[in-house]
Amino acid sequence: MTTYPKTDRLMQRGAEFLGSKYAILCGAMSWVSERNLVSAISNAGGFGVIACGAMTPELLETEIAETQKLTDKPFGVNLITMHPQLFDLIEVCDKAGVSHVVLAGGIPPKGSVEAIKGGDNPAKVICFAPTLALAKKLLRSGADALVIEGMEAGGHIGPVSTSVLAQEMLPELAEEHLIFVAGGIGRGQAIAGYLEMGAAGVQLGTRFACATESIAHENFKKAFFRASARDAVASVQVDPRLPVIPVRALKNKGTEEFTRKQIEVAGVLDREEIAMDEAQLQIEHYWAGALRRAVIDGDVENGSLMAGQSVGMLKAEEPVADIIEKLMAQSEEALTRR
Q1: What is the pLDDT of residues 230-276, one digit of tens each?
Q2: What is the pLDDT of residues 274-287, one digit of tens each?
Q3: Digit-coded pLDDT (tens) for 60-76
């Protein structure tokens, strides 16, 4: 059995917190991070995370139960903070005994962290922190760990690169808190660097999107294999009133359609036919539908191909276990060379 003593030592805090062999989380990717991929990652020593996205509580309950049939290892659930049934979803996680809940998409609403940590089966809370000030606030508010994710990531992104966030936040926070680094990580050498800077572990999404166990359509995977880093572009905000978080995806007709969708929603706002919250939800529902078209239906022209800039490193399907072992071996080699 291959061992990675140097990497394991640097990952120890993160692995103990997650309850996994390696402190490697899979980023929650809507339609992709479901029972098959999540269980495969947890079974291979990583930490899988179900992407709840726009699921109803009933759908999430089923997804958790089906994942638990496929793995006896810990896994998490990613909940979007703006989901209108957030507290119902938290209750579903509590009843199912989910060990970790990841809150994404904005500042956790009042009472949500307390609800996750104070249920019958208290769970650990992981939050995303795009700035140092917000990171400190989230930790004071009860977050057990943070993910700092740079703009190189796929899906919803912030404005700052991973390397800058890591330099700014790890020296300030990593000694006393658990900080996971995400965004643009495609090889173990990068993992080694962030671990040496004090990260408790890392999160990767794009690297796992085209794994053998991923249910993503063959067309979706082929689009990733053809793409280079520069093909993964960030969406443009058309109207400053719309609080649209930029999304990084492979450029296609779907990205152009999103620009039109923003103009349409802005027009409805102008006519005061909907409130701002509803406008935001319409944008999120657009992404959910566009993602499904690409991931499930294989419509890579009109669907959304959310991908990080590390997509250029993907060349072929690989089993999850091979991906994780390769990342660990690359990290160990880099640390040994040092």
Answers
A1: 999 998 887 777 767 788 999 999 888 888 888 888 888 888 788 87
A2: 887 788 777 777 88
A3: 999 999 999 999 999 99
CA angle (252 as vertex; 291, 241 as ends), nearest 5: 70
* Closest listed residue to residue 98, CA positions, set 127, 71, 118, 124: 124
Per the prediction, the chain carries an average pLDDT of 94
Q: Whole-angstrom Cα distance, residue 117 to residue 181? A: 23
Distance from C-alpha of 231 to C-alpha of 224, rounded to nearest angstrom: 10
End-to-end CA gap in the chain: 24
Q: Token digits for 42?
A: 């947890």
Helix 86-96 vs helix 57-70: crossing angle, to nearest 10: 30
> Both tokens of residue 201?
């572990």
Per-position b or e across 14-31, b if 16+ CB within 10 A of its CB: bbebbebbbbbbbbbbbb
Q: Residue 155 carries which side chain, given as an amino acid letter?
A: G
Mean pLDDT of 180-204: 98
Strands, sheet with 155-156, edge to edge from the N-terminal-most edge strand: 155-156, 247-250, 232-234
The number of C-alpha atoms within 13 Å of 222 and in the hemisphere containing its C-beta is 7
Q: What is the DSSP letter of 318?
A: -
Single-letter code of the amino acid located at 105: G
Q: Fill in the DSSP letter of residue 143.
A: -
Q: What is the dihedral of CA 294, 300, 304, 307, to 10 degrees?
A: 100
- Which pTM does this prediction carry? 0.95
